[in-house]
Amino acid sequence: MEICCFNIQSALIAQQMGASRIELCNSPAEGGTTPSLSTVEIARNHLRLDLFPIIRPREGDFLYSEEEYQIMKSDIMYCKKAGCDGVVIGLLNPDGSIDKSRVSRLVEIAYPMEVTFHRAFDWCANPFEAMEDIITTGCTRLLSSGQKPTAPEGAQLLKELVRQAEDRIVVMPGSGIRSSNLSGIIEITGAEEFHSSARVLHKSRMEFLNDAMLEELSYWLADAGEVEAMATQLSPKEP
Fold first, then answer.
1. With CB atoms 3.0 to 4.6 Å apart as the test, which of 5, 38, 88, 165 could cross-link to 11 if both were Cys?
2. Looking at residue 110, which CATH number applies to its domain?
3. Rounded to the nearest 5°, which phi and psi values hold at 123?
4. Does residue 117 sit within a domain?
């Protein structure tokens, strides 16, 4: 059970409640961008779990400029130096195919860290060709919602991808996964790893609030009960 965490508090909750891995991100409203280097460092110092920061220099599409690509390379090298276990990336060409040359280079830079290819995959023109290309780059894991907004909606494609992968890459369903639908997704897809933010909106604890300010001060936090419920479903059963 991989939990996507947008702050250090969520990562600590996920660890306590039985998660197996943390995908560390910033900016939930943008779908996740690269966390600050200090956040990566503090998370690595406090977490016993595998830690995979996302390497995404901005919101929006996955077609990156040369300058953005250089930022990604530098951030990956920092994550390796900080002792992370892996990183999460995704780069596309304008025609919706995988940017194989750049992805391959980032995998080389990341080694011996693992590399997950994220849901940029869900914007690919041909998912079956795209997965073969991702395998050739050396990525060890593919995060996907089956080219639908949520994994439950894309479960049939995820099932086909798991079958096609044949243990050459881990296909990890993600997006919209909760304890209430996890067992059904397991049954349909045959996948063995799953991804969820398991998040809930946390109300600010500020005692004073300026009514003239319109910004919402609540923030997303991992739901301890949800993480525990999903981790329990995936725990090895006693013989």
1. 5
2. 3.20.20.380
3. -105, 10
4. yes
